[in-house]
Amino acid sequence: MTVWNSCLLLFWMSGISTSKHHYHARVTIGNQGMSRVTFPNADAGLMKFVSKNGSQIIWMARNNMLYSINVKQEDKPKPLGYKISLLTEGSDENPLFYCGHVNEKTRCCNLNSSYMPSDCFPFSDYKLEIDQPSLLVGEMLFFALSKKGLYKKNVKNPNDNIWPQSPQADLKYLKLVPGRGQHKDKFYSFAQKYNNKGEYEEWVPLVYQSCTNDRGGNKNLLENSWTSMISARMECGKDFTKLIDVSSVETDHDTKIYALFRNYWNMSAVCVYNMTEISDTFTSSDFNSINVSVNPRPGTCAKDSTQLSNELLKVMKKCPEIKKPVKPEKRPLVFRHRRYTHLQVDQVQNSIILLLALESGGVDKVLKNPLEEPVSTIAEYQPLPQGSNITGLFLHTSEKRLFVSSQSELVQMNLTQCEVYGDKCTQCLLSKDPYCQWNGTHCSAATRIQVQDSDVCGELVSVLELSKATIKEGTVHCHYNMHNTNLSSADSPVASHSRTVTFIPASSKHFLLCPMMSKYASYHWIHKNEQKECVFSDQSCMFLIDSMNETYEGFYSCESKEGKYQSSIVQYELRMSRNSGVSLVLIPYFSLSLTALHFLL
Ligand SMILES: *[C@@H]1O[C@H](CO)[C@@H](O)[C@H](O)[C@H]1NC(C)=O
Ligand SMILES: *[C@@H]1O[C@H](CO)[C@@H](O)[C@H](O)[C@H]1NC(C)=O
Ligand SMILES: *[C@@H]1O[C@H](CO)[C@@H](O)[C@H](O)[C@H]1NC(C)=O
Ligand SMILES: *[C@@H]1O[C@H](CO)[C@@H](O)[C@H](O)[C@H]1NC(C)=O
Ligand SMILES: *[C@@H]1O[C@H](CO)[C@@H](O)[C@H](O)[C@H]1NC(C)=O
Ligand SMILES: *[C@@H]1O[C@H](CO)[C@@H](O)[C@H](O)[C@H]1NC(C)=O
Ligand SMILES: *[C@@H]1O[C@H](CO)[C@@H](O)[C@H](O)[C@H]1NC(C)=O
Ligand SMILES: *[C@@H]1O[C@H](CO)[C@@H](O)[C@H](O)[C@H]1NC(C)=O
Ligand SMILES: *[C@@H]1O[C@H](CO)[C@@H](O)[C@H](O)[C@H]1NC(C)=O
Ligand SMILES: *[C@@H]1O[C@H](CO)[C@@H](O)[C@H](O)[C@H]1NC(C)=O
């Protein structure tokens, strides 16, 4: 007969609702599940990552050096030794398109599917900047240059080029996103405009729509300049106007744009837009300051833009902006006390995971669940030392690996290392992490794509309800027969004979420790059916005994309550030693009390 001691995990339903907004992350995960590489020369700024959807290889530019990382093999980055100045996803079968300096000359190449440079051509027209966004759509390369603007180069036709008609010194391009589906003939550029109006600074977040086949105007007007570019302001709440980062996610029918904003008071907000809505706004709204009677409508993609009428080109020369701002799908997700610098997004079924880098070297994992408002910060990681600047953040979505870089380090985080949430079913469930799942014995990487429902652990409830009373007596440990109770998968069996009895000499001081993993839970001690409040210390709930006497003898349980779950985190049994020779005897009771000891050390 298999005997289960299920006293160790007791929890029951208590109808408390969960949707309380928390400022703190639920759990703090130091640097577990991370591997790091330190670079010898610590002077590099930005780290640029590129990986084609579905590919195991991540390309990384640092200090103009190109590296590759094979995610599956947990490779250290392999230096490929190029003086790289542009890096972007390749088109068609090619994993990568890049430009680099060889003997003072710039050359651009495709990296073909056998990882060989091909279709290389010299490119000396401009001094490319690796930290500026770029995009390859078919044969068209789009790239930005700081303080100058947006350029196009046809990689197959040296005469098909577009450059800005005048330098855009006040504009910073952040991200270029290709159109998909019905928007395939266009691409979108997200940029931040900065005006210094003497007294105060003004930030305007903008999105530009341009046609990929734009070839410029005619000899007289807009020759080799954009003839299809129109712009719109982006709206995100009332005062979030400083666009910090943009991340796009392709869904079945659309492309979602996640934009990270900041306001004057250093609060952060994330707004979500979709490409269909952006495109619809561009085609339906009036224009500012110009009367649109021209046909076709400004911004329409022409077969051959050099044939456009002078009337239209005159309108396009003014860089028309539409009146209506582009609106987010929903209210912004606002983070009051966080100054985020980078954003990466993943979609797991209906849940959205936002990974947000902080200025302090930390990363927050934020869950946006369609059924729950508002968002919750499910975990906070500290991949880099306090105060280091995060220079790059990249999520490899299929392997669930997050790459975080600073000037001198590259940290790889395994986001499916679910054991960090604890070894109990409820802990796994309460983590709400869509990457994790209770597999019967452990909190482990989600394999089946399914939303965890609370019934996973629910089978235990009724049984433990029964066991509650017994535990509080502090004498008998309840035993359950697996065959009677159908506990088949919910929790790991614990041998019934292991127990901790701590003997404490009369009049001596002692304390009991209970780790507080979740900042969203409340903790207290139960002793002799009475609830005792915690004495808080760092990340634990303590019970202090000033002077041991008989009153303090008995069974102690540290209980946590979070949402509808209540569970016992650690148990201790205290006895007063009558024999003054024995001061402290500890017998391991079960693994969690060892965790508690670990905290003591
Ligand atoms: C990206 O890759 C995933 C898995 O390989 C696939 O399901 C998805 O459709 C791909 N997306 C695009 C836009 O190719
Ligand atoms: C890749 O390029 C190399 C050299 O340019 C060529 O030999 C090879 O056949 C190409 N591979 C593919 C798959 O096109
Ligand atoms: C915002 O943060 C920056 C850098 O941490 C600081 O210099 C600035 O004073 C802050 N602004 C406000 C309004 O708190
Ligand atoms: C736009 O056209 C309307 C009539 O078609 C006219 O009343 C208005 O003044 C025009 N506005 C501008 C800015 O030209
Ligand atoms: C795009 O956004 C609009 C409004 O913001 C919304 O009505 C529409 O349902 C969204 N489309 C998709 C595919 O989510
Ligand atoms: C972080 O970046 C800022 C400005 O980019 C710089 O002044 C500071 O020295 C950097 N901090 C570290 C630890 O490198
Ligand atoms: C991430 O961690 C999980 C759990 O420890 C492990 O199963 C998985 O193989 C790891 N993934 C990678 C890419 O190392
Ligand atoms: C559950 O996950 C753990 C650790 O990830 C693994 O060792 C164990 O074999 C898994 N159990 C089942 C039933 O898959
Ligand atoms: C245990 O639960 C499963 C599924 O919930 C059920 O099919 C089975 O009959 C149960 N066994 C017992 C002994 O209650
Ligand atoms: C044990 O000590 C506590 C507090 O110091 C005191 O309230 C209690 O009465 C004592 N019990 C006995 C049996 O002396």
Automatic annotation (TrEMBL):
GO terms for cellular component: extracellular space; plasma membrane. Residues 1-415 form the Sema domain. One of its GO terms (molecular function) is chemorepellent activity. Residues 1-19 form the signal peptide. Residues 493-577 form the Ig-like domain. InterPro entries: Ig-like_dom, Ig-like_fold, Semap_dom, Semap_dom_sf, Semaphorin, WD40/YVTN_repeat-like_dom_sf. Keywords: Glycoprotein, Signal. The keyword Ion transport does not apply. GO terms for biological process: axon guidance; negative regulation of transcription by RNA polymerase II; neural crest cell migration; ossification involved in bone maturation; positive regulation of cell migration; semaphorin-plexin signaling pathway. Belongs to the semaphorin family. This is Sema domain-containing protein. It comes from Danionella cerebrum.
